[in-house]
Amino acid sequence: MAKSEFKFSFSFRVRYAETDAQGIVFFAHYLTYFDTAINEYLRDLPYNYIEHVKQTGTDFHVVKVTVEFFAPSHFDDEIEVYVRTGRIGRTSLTFFIEIFPKNGETTLVKGEVVWVNTDQKTYKSVPLPEALVVKLGNKEGEGI
User: Fold this and answer.
1) Residue 1 pLDDT class (50, 70, 90 cuts)
2) Angle 104-112-138 (CA atoms, 0-180°, nearest 5)?
3) pTM score, two decimals?
4) In terms of C-beta density within 10 A (0-12 exposed, 13-18 middle, 19 or more buried), how is residue 106 classed?
């Protein structure tokens, strides 16, 4: 996707501890970048994730993550993680994520994260909160 297809991004600077012996970001750290950016995306809606858990007794479980690597990031690189809601299901959300160099247009990493809203006593999926669905629709527009 082009950057223009996203309405939210969150910036990071790659820390030395996130790099491996090859001098590039160790692959597992991209999941931390994804997770942090998704939480900042929700904060930007605004949607209080912690209150969601407290008030509903439900929480989101990650059920699927895909990551595609196109080019490496190195220590001290500035990167931007772009997030959008790609799909809204009855009980699930799919986030599309792409990472670009700051002020660059070349996709470094692309991913998808699927969350399922789950009752924390039964661990069964439950419908998404309507307030969240409305906020996501307002943010992303039709087509999700």
Assistant:
1) confident
2) 85
3) 0.95
4) exposed
Q: Which is nearest to 113 in space by CA: 68, 45, 66?
A: 66
Q: Enumerate the β-bridge partners of residue 121.
A: none
Backbone phi, psi, residue 140, to 5°: -95, -20
Residue with tokens 């931007």: 80
**What's the pLDDT tens digit per position in 57-96?**
999 999 999 999 999 999 999 999 999 999 999 999 999 9
Q: Are strands 92-101 and 78-88 parallel, antiparallel or unpaired?
A: antiparallel
Please tell me the distance from the alpha carbon of residue 128 to that of residue 118, in angstroms, as a whole number.
9
Rg (CA), the chain: 16
Residues 6 or more apart whose CB falls under 8 angstroms from that of 59 comprise 52, 53, 117, 118, 120
Instruction: With cut-offs at 50, 70 and 90, classify the pLDDT of residue 144.
Output: confident
Q: Dig out the tokens for 4 from the structure.
A: 């223009």
Side chain identity at 30, as an amino acid letter? Y
H or E stretch including 101? strand 92-101
